[in-house]
Amino acid sequence: MEDISLTIAKELDLSRKSVEAAIKLLDEGNTIPFIARYKKDITNNLTDTNLRDLEERLIYLRNLNERKNSVLDLIAEKGKLSEELKKAIEDAKTLAEVEDLYRPYKEKRKTRGVIAKEKGLENLALALLLGKEIKDFNLYLASFINQEKDVKTIEDALNGAKDIIAENIADEAKYRKYIKEIILKEGLFESKEKKKDEKDTYGTYASFSILIKKIKPYQFLAISRGEKEKCLKSSLNYDKEKIKEYILKDYRDNFYLDIIKEIIDDSLKRLIFPSVENEIYSELKEMAEDKSIVVFKK
User: Fold this and answer.
1) 34, 45, 61, 260: most buried by Cβ count inside 10 Å?
2) What is the pLDDT along the chain (298 residues), one digit of tens a residue?
């Protein structure tokens, strides 16, 4: 696991000695105003702003390390903790990265993919993923028909296998990381007017578009209020085809490429995009609220 005091010192451009001293004082129960005013000699003159930033990162990084340890234990209990996965979890910089790495090993609710596995269709899904030509594919599909398990036709078998693969793709950490980075780097945050209120409070955002990475906290909060009052509708706009092509390159040599393309479309539309967009909205909300609190404090 990372050295928290060293990480904070690098992030905030502070001396490690000052950071370690401040952490010790905080852990002893001292308040930030008290430390800033009466412990300058110990912290080497850290300001209350320095200390608040330090405390925020301290809490986050401690939570991050705690979650890493928890996830490592949970995966180890299942006997699925490889050295590569362990290193990836230990090197993760955010809680979101840790959760993406843990996602394939979580106990799943009754999803379509889970139900398909219970129907005995996992080997069919694996055959599609391996992508080697099967001479009589329909005959192979027919071998998975099972009336007792409600697999009545070859279409039922194929659709169940597709559901399994769609969830596997959605659980792949490298895809989720790439997609989130692309959306945050290149995507637009947009809002459209649904209706006007009496004062036209949200006129500024009636047809609004800005890079996600450039949206201001007050803009996000105003649009959020407009949505609650049913005056606005917001959305994220980004290059979905670019993302699809990124995933598709891993399957270019697959004999069943047309089927794989359908599965990727389904996985993106039904599983990945809604999930990643929710994460981004949550992070934007948290960022906006945190910034607002800082402004109010000033």
Assistant:
1) 260
2) 568 999 999 999 999 999 999 999 999 999 999 998 989 999 988 998 899 999 989 999 999 999 999 999 999 988 989 999 999 999 998 888 999 999 888 877 889 999 999 999 999 999 999 999 999 999 999 999 999 999 999 999 999 999 999 999 999 999 999 999 999 999 999 999 998 877 888 889 999 999 999 999 999 999 999 999 999 999 999 999 999 999 999 999 999 999 999 999 999 999 999 999 999 999 999 888 877 666 666 5
What interhelical angle do 95-102 and 83-91 show, nearest 10? 160
Amino acid making up residue 91: D
Total residue length of the chain: 298
